[in-house]
Amino acid sequence: MSSIPLTSSHHRWQLAGPDAARYLNGQISNDVHRCTETTGIAACVCNAKGKLDGIVHVSPGSEPDHFIVDFPAELEDTLPLRLERYLIADDAEWSDLTDSTFQIHITDTTADIIAPLVASLDGVVAISQARFGALGVDVIGPIAQQSAAADALAPIATITLDAQELEDLRIANGAPRWGAELTPDTLPKEVGLEPTHVSFTKGCYIGQETISRMKTAGKVRQALCKLTTSDPVTTGMELIVEGSDKPCGTITSVDSAGTTALALVKRAALESPDAIALATNCAKISSLTSLV
């Protein structure tokens, strides 16, 4: 098991009140009722056209009718405003917990293993969450308990991943990241978020009509792909179909070795994946797999 500090890289907001679950369900693509005492959910926050305003993880708080919503720090100026926008007559209230809480993600484990280790720490919760392409556990609590939680977790989480190691893990697992594969122009289906971030059985939410229509149609304009190369490549390099000089995709993330990458590739080009090549011809594509 490894630990991944999220206290600084993610912001945490709390929605609390009798109407919290109902309101939140109207804003996100997954079903809040899937949350249990030790299980959270991942979800998209979309606009009316079904494109991303952001991505979030929702965890049950330490009290009933309390939900902790965390999201990448890059969204701090836009996503809270979006989430608060429609809270008018609902009996619920948002509060910013970012500076008063800590957050650690433990890889390759489950909440039933982690929860007993932090059970004696007041206000600290251990919630199973899928992050970076794999299931793990988020430990969230008051900032005053951060040191005690770290001590409690130290015997099993013996490695702390730095930013580059985390990026390598994410790319190896084919997980998209905000600012790389995920932008305000992204549709959830294009980057493989439907299985983990979308419920097709819950009630209405903003963007639902477009997302449901795309599932029925089964087509996307582009798809997230994972590729390996013979030599190092860099972010931003364009892909082409052999015999054409027209770009059909772009590399969006590259691991520390430079030979495993994620890319967004146009749907038409994926009809002949073996013909896709780097426009600069600086390396050969050894493998290319659609993750959608």
TrEMBL record:
The keyword Transit peptide applies. Keywords: Transit peptide. It comes from the Bacteria. One of its GO terms (biological process) is iron-sulfur cluster assembly. This is Uncharacterized protein. It comes from Sulfuriroseicoccus oceanibius.
